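Quick check before the chapter quiz. The format below is the same one you will see on the exam, so make sure you can read both the input and the output lines.
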Amino acid sequence: MALKDLKMLEVEIKVRIEIEPIEKRLGELGAEFINRTHQKDVYFRHPCRDLKKTDEALRVRNVKDKYFLTYKGAKLDPETKTRKEIQIRVEKGVFNLLKSLGFSAAGEVEKRRSFYQWKDLKIYLDEVKGLGNFLELEGTSWKDKEKIFEILEKLGIEKRRLTRKSYLELLEELD
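Here is the expected output.
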């Protein structure tokens, strides 16, 4: 496991958007387009602990046949989805390992993600299957929260429109 695989804090916001106007505005603000990927996330239930109740998540993400196991802790901030995050690159066999340990799939999220960089923030424009289009802004320190709200203002997005729910939670609400 390389140290670059670990990220200890994720400061994040999410908001439903129309992609085209936001892409245009990001270009005007000087955000750099990095890449576009297809991602499939499988979330897991813990055999002895209710991760929904503890506001935690465990998932395996597949991006171009590369797999990442991610643990997300409980939210730490009432305005954002700031939480402890640990991510490790793994092999496809992680699914068998988790199953052998008693974990079971809780749900899947599939999306097409466009990745931009602005200052030291990550900006994602997500087309989530069955859910719609979203903007995610991510940083890795508490200081990034100010930058996140700064770019939201520049994009003309009001704080009241933000959601702290995960894509999985939003999809479950549709059922």
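If your answer matched, good. The chain has a mean pLDDT of 94.
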